[in-house]
Amino acid sequence: TASICAGGSQLLTTSGGTSYQWSLNGSSIAGATSSTYNANTAGTYSVVITNGTCSGPASNTSTINISNSQAVEITALGSTEICEGKSVSIVANINGTYQWYKNGVPLANTDQKIYIANEAGKYMVIVKAAANCTSSSNEIDVTKIPPPKGSITSASDILCEGNSMILYVTGGSSYQWFENGFPVTGATTSSYSAEMPGVYSALIMNDKGCEAETLNTLILKMVQKPTADFTFDLSCQKQANHFTNTSTYENSGTIKWQWDFGDLSTADSFSVSHIFADSGKYFVTLTAVPVACPQLSSGIKKEVNIIAGIQGIKYFPVRVIKNVAYPLTARNIGQKYLWQPAAGLNDPFTRTPFVTASKEITYTIKINMENGCSTVDTLLVQVFDKTEVFVPRAFTPNANNANDVLRPIVVNIPRINFFKVFNRWGQLVFQTQKTGEGWDGKYKGSVQPTETYTWVFEGTDINGNIIKSNGQTILIR
Known about the structure:
Elements: E1 2-5, E2 10-13, E3 19-24, E4 27-28, E5 36-39, E6 43-51, E7 54-57, E8 62-67, E9 74-76, E10 81-83, E11 88-92, E12 97-102, E13 105-106, E14 114-117, E15 121-128, E16 134-136, E17 140-145, E18 152-154, E19 158-160, E20 165-169, E21 174-179, E22 182-183, E23 191-194, E24 198-205, E25 211-213, E26 218-223, E27 230-232, E28 240-245, E29 255-260, E30 266-267, E31 272-275, E32 280-290, E33 298-306, E34 318-321, E35 326-327, E36 336-340, E37 354-355, E38 361-368, E39 374-384, E40 388-390, E41 394-395, E42 409-411, E43 415-422, E44 428-432, E45 442-443, E46 446-447, E47 451-460, E48 466-475
Parallel strand pairs: 1-8, 10-17, 19-26, 34-39, 41-48
Antiparallel strand pairs: 2-5, 3-4, 3-6, 6-7, 6-8, 9-11, 11-14, 12-13, 12-15, 15-16, 15-17, 18-20, 20-23, 21-22, 21-24, 24-25, 24-26, 27-28, 28-31, 29-30, 29-32, 32-33, 35-37, 36-38, 38-39, 40-42, 43-44, 43-47, 45-46, 47-48
C-alpha cells in the first residue's frame, strides 16, 4: 500500500516474465505491458506475468491511495505598509515544513510558520504537509512608507536672557520636541517656545505612524545681561586719566562699549585714557551693549572730580662755570621728581640735584604730586668760564616783554644776599633776594621817570665767597 499526493505518481515494479499486463481494480490498463508502471490513480493494482506459453498473476497486489494537498493561505498580522525600521508578521494557516520566498527567491533559514518581513517585496510560502505533499500560498505585497523628513528652524540661535525663542519644525503630522535629549512634556506641535539654552531636536511622525528624527539639531546659546563697571586712577586736569573696564560679561557674547566722559567726549574702546581740559565735577558713564541682545545693555555712572592742574613754568636760567658742580632746585610742590635728560646730574630723582655741565643744556622736571597729578617745568643751564655778575646798562619797562625788568644776571652764584636799586636822591625803590626777580620800573605802584638809577649787588658763590658789585642803569621810556 502506498499514498501519493494529488497530481503525483507511484512507480510499480514486477519481474519474472517476458511480457506483462497491469490492471486497476481488476480492469486491464491499456498499453500497460512493461515490467514497470507509474500509477497516478487511486485503487488496487495487479499484474499478469507471461513467460513463453505460461502466464499467471503476480503473488501480490499494490493499493495506491491519493492524499489531497491542503490549501495554504498566508495572512499579514498588521498593515502591509511598513515604516522604515519596522516590520510586519506574516503567518501560514497550516502546519508543516516551510520555505518562504520574497519576489520568487527562497529566503534562508525560514522554516517557521510565521515570517517577519522588514523589507518591501512580494512574499509567499510553500508548505510540505501530510504525505509530504507541498502546497503554495497566496502572495502578500509588503511596501515601505518613506520616512518623514523635516528640519528645525528659528529666527536666531541666540536666546536673550529673560526672553524666549520660537522654534519651528516641518515634515510631519505630529511631533515630539526634545531638549538635551529628553522629551519635553506636552511639546507636540510644529512650534516650541524655548526659554533655556541647550540642544533642541524633534521626532517627526506622519499620518501612517512612521517617525524619524529631524535632519538637524538646533543649539540655542544664552546671552546674559552684562554688569558694567570701571575704576580710574587719576583725576587730574590736562593729564591722561586712565579708566579700567572691570565689567562682568563672560556670558554676554560680543560687547559694544560706550564711554561718555560728561564733557561732550566719548570713546568705544574696552579701557580708555581721557584728558579733561578743565577741572571740576564730571559724571563718567560706561555702557555695555551685547551686540546680539542690545536690550540687555547695562550702564554705570560714576562721579569724577578733576583736580585743577598746576601749570608748568619756565625757571629763570641758571648760569654755571664749566665742569663745576652747581646746585639746581625745582619747585617744592611734589613728592617725586624726574629730571631729563639725566646727563650732568648727580641724581635725576631729587628736587635739588647738582649739575656739572660742559655745554648749555635744557632740563625738563616732571613733578608728581601727592594727589597723583603731575606737571612739567623747564630749566635752562648756561655755561660760562668764570664767576661774574651782569646787570644791563639800560632797560625799557614798556610791557613789550623785551628788557622790561631790571635784574642781575649771575654766574656761579646760587644765593643772592641782596640786589638794591636807588634813585638819584638815594631813595631805595626796589630790593630782592630772589634769583630771577627784578625791578619793573615802579615804586609803590607809581611809574618812575626816565633817569639814571644806581644798583648794588651782593651774593654768595658756590664756594661760599661773598661776591659784590654795583653800577648804574638808565630807565628808558
